[in-house]
Amino acid sequence: MILSHAEIVRVMRYGVVGLFTNGTIYLIFLGLIWSGLHPVLASGLCYGMGVIFSYILNRRWTFNSQSHHKHDAPRFVLAYALGLIITLVSMTALIKFVAPELAQLATALITAIAIYSCLRIFRFGESALPKEDLR
């Protein structure tokens, strides 16, 4: 499968947003588990914190959405709800084999791929109107 130039740029921007958001959230995650919070709970809380920042940055910069929030928000929430399930399942499974710090990094990557795929499938950021109706 060959990606278009626009899709490659979108994936790269998604990666930049993800690195920024997840890097920040990872530091918060470390603080939470080092203060005694269970890793799965800390992961879930951090996931929720990152959703708002991710929505704003990805909607504007990654996907350059011209759609209304009422079109974009439900698609984003659904993709991230599925991502949350993947996050919690991944963390629960991975902490049995590796340290929570490493499990969180692997979980972030697995979840990012799943969410991006969902956003594309759900047509996040694409206008609800056909292109000829946007004039």
Task: Write up this protein.
The chain has 135 residues and is mainly α. Helix content is 76%, strand content 0%. The chain contains 4 helices and no strands. The protein starts with a helix and ends in a 14-residue tail after the last helix.
Keywords:
135 residues, mainly alpha, 4 helices, 76% helix
Structure, briefly:
By secondary structure, the protein is mainly alpha-helical.
Q: Give the class from helix and strand content and strand pairing.
A: mainly alpha
The coarse overall form would be elongated
- Our count of helices gives 4
Strand-residue fraction? under 5%
Instruction: Using the CA coordinates, give the radius of gyration.
Output: 16 Å
User: Which stretches are poorly predicted, pLDDT < 50 over at least 5 residues?
Assistant: none
| Series of secondary-structure elements, N-terminal to C-terminal | HHHH
User: How would you sum up the major sheet?
Assistant: none
User: What is the residue-averaged pLDDT?
Assistant: 90
Number of strands: 0
Query: Roughly what percent helix?
Result: over 70%
**Terminal Cα span:** 32 Å
